[in-house]
Amino acid sequence: MGRIYLIDVTNRDGVQTARLGLSKLAKTMINIYLNEMGVFQSEFGFPTTRHESNYLRANLELQEMGVLQPIHLGGWLRATTEDVEKAFELVPAIKDINISISTSRQMINGKFQGTKSEQDILLMAAEAIDVARAHGAQTIGVNAEDASRTDDDFLIKFGTLAREHGADRLRYCDTLGYDNPFTIYNICKLLAQEVGLPIELHTHGDLGMAVANSVTGAMGVIDGGQDAYINTTINGIGERAGNADLVAVVLALKKSKGLARKYKFGRPIRLSKAWKICKYASYAFNVPIPINQPGVGANAFAHASGIHADGVLKDPENYELYDFKELGRGEPEMVETGREIASGEYSGISGFRHVMGKMDIEFADREDAEEILELARYANVLAQQPLVADELYFIAKYPEIARKLLTLTPLA
Predict the structure, then answer these.
(1) Is the per-residue pLDDT at 98 higher than 90?
(2) pLDDT of 19-52, one tens digit each?
(3) Extents of the domains making up the chain
(4) What pTM does this model have?
(5) Which of 42, 142, 148, 246 would you label with 304, given CA atoms 20 to 30 Å apart?
(6) Which residues, in sequence order, are CB contacts of 275 under 8 Å at separation 6+?
(7) Are 386 and 410 in contact, with CB atoms under 8 Å apart?
(8) What is the rounded distance in angstroms from the CA atom of residue 238 to the CA atom of residue 14?
(9) What is the rounded distance in angstroms from the CA atom of residue 200 to the CA atom of residue 197?
(10) With contact defined as beta carbons under 8 Å apart, do 352 and 376 qualify?
(11) Are 5 and 231 in contact (CB under 8 A)?
């Protein structure tokens, strides 16, 4: 049987969300947390975008250092030879990429305005794959944008061509959230059988079915004889109504009736990291976790009804499918209610050393402390909010990497 792997796209699709964004340090912390959780790959950014270059290179350096292992770091780019060439010019060490192009008649006609045909789409994809492989790409995913509105025969032709040119996966993009669990199961099973490649599921929540579609699509892929790769975002943050929520997808596959016996993850997923990563993403994006969010919402384990409260006190399994401790919840959180010294962009050395000392971080001398303080100041400027403890730890432990993350080089 095939296996299920997770490719989180928070650092690509999530940051494309209108009115939202992340600092490069925050994106790096998310990659670290995804790695801890057992996610197969983070789609960590855009290698053709110049302001991402230092961040992407720094994260690939962390990968070489073993800090970001075994997670893959995948870049997203358009299926054009120009994008591929530029990606490897700006980020030479990148090894994992996903190239994307529209495949539906609506998109081909509506976006390209009559300048491209289906044959042109096939040619562009083939050329992009060939150039990427020539540059040393180790894994190449090929994305069919708007796949759910693409003719089945053309989708099979597109996927087959991708396989023949050496692609490793075909990404089925339900770009508008148009699918339902029945349609996506059927087409993904067909693609797995006919194309003969592992299939990625990239779903959106425009109709509220992103998680259900991701799960049933993966079931179709595995029933069709291939591995399935589900695209997720933390807290479901993504364009318009969002993407498939990371934690909800994991819970569905682990806890939904009968699924875990047949549809298994290809690597261990540490659900105990869920609370930490969701809280951090909420803070970094400045978007509250919905009160009814599966697993991590404030009400996910709250009971007020007399019948429910009585039942859960007698036996939690009466009204809870899983224990809150499985998600890393339950530990007390400390909140300062008296005097507090915080680190910020205008912090002084005495206050900063006090803050770091509370986290058992010591400096060799004042000069060492001032160097880390200066980096923390810049990180605060970019984040425009106080740094969390893990961010300060990271800066203190990897100051040279932090320096690269905080460096932007505008065009002359």
Answers:
(1) yes
(2) 999 999 999 999 999 999 999 999 999 999 999 9
(3) 4-277, 349-405
(4) 0.94
(5) 246
(6) 296, 327, 328, 329
(7) no
(8) 4
(9) 10
(10) yes
(11) no
